[in-house]
Fold this sequence. Notes:
alpha/beta; Quinone Oxidoreductase, Chain A, domain 1; Rossmann fold; 2 domains; seven-stranded mixed sheet; six-stranded parallel sheet
Amino acid sequence: MVKAIRVHEFGGPEVLKWENVEIGEPKEGEIKVKNKAIGLNFIDIYYRKGVYKPPTMPFTPGMEAVGVVTAVGPGLAESRKVGVYVAYAGGPMGAYAEEQILPAEKVVVVPSAVDPVTAASFMLKGMTAWFLVRECFKVEPGYTILVHAAAGGVGSLLCQWANSLGATVIGTVSTKEKAAQAKEDGCHHVILYKEEDFVTCVNEITSGKGVDVVYDSVGKDTFQGSLACLKLRGYMVSFGQSSGTPDPVPLSALAAKALFLTRPSLMQYTVTRDQLEQAAAEVFDRFTAGALRVRVNHTYPLSQAAQAHADLENRKTSGSIVLIPDGS
């Protein structure tokens, strides 16, 4: 038996229960991993609330973890041997556990230069930033982009990556402290959305032209304003909904400026093993080369996941949040 966070009903952070679970042994093509660090992501909150539906109830949340291989099923390559540190991000769900069984094809080996806590803080977020700026919409020199929640886990990496590609980066944040962080992370312009109307600010910054692309993980509170910030034939990339599901958008709302609208997720860009390895390699390479700075601003014991969820939802955090299994 191992300890894990379990969810028996949808709701607030209080539904996260610290319980004993039986995980068994790895079958063919599987490995057992003793988790050392677990990334907390907003998608975990969506599943906890029931915005996204888990495959079963009860369930163990979590889409990202780093740990050491403790057992392997038959027929696996040498790279998945006992003692190797591996990471996974994006599925299967179940990372909020001291140990878990994973499909070997879903994990990547963690470079020796990257410690587990750091790796767990940026695997999912880093690959999300990768597909947003390199695959979903290719950011190029001279583009102007708008990033909501610029001081968040994904936002921080997204701003750094876009800046390094030669884009002018505009970010929105809630506090002056987060504004300072966003500046350090490559934002050329930072908007305090609680004090300023971000649409008006973007209009002023771009001299009325608008931005090439908006990366919006906030959802309901920013969606209509994000559309208003786009230039002719601009791209609206809605990849989260921390404030709630946006209201439906009629096609006529896109027609005036011939806008493009997409709602992607990382899992659609790492379908094959080759795609997963490409994404992970680019993220690890940029980190080890110093091109990406990761901010592990908050760590919590895994048993206190409920408090971590509450703090993230109440916007008391910035950068990445990592859960540490008790005893690790």
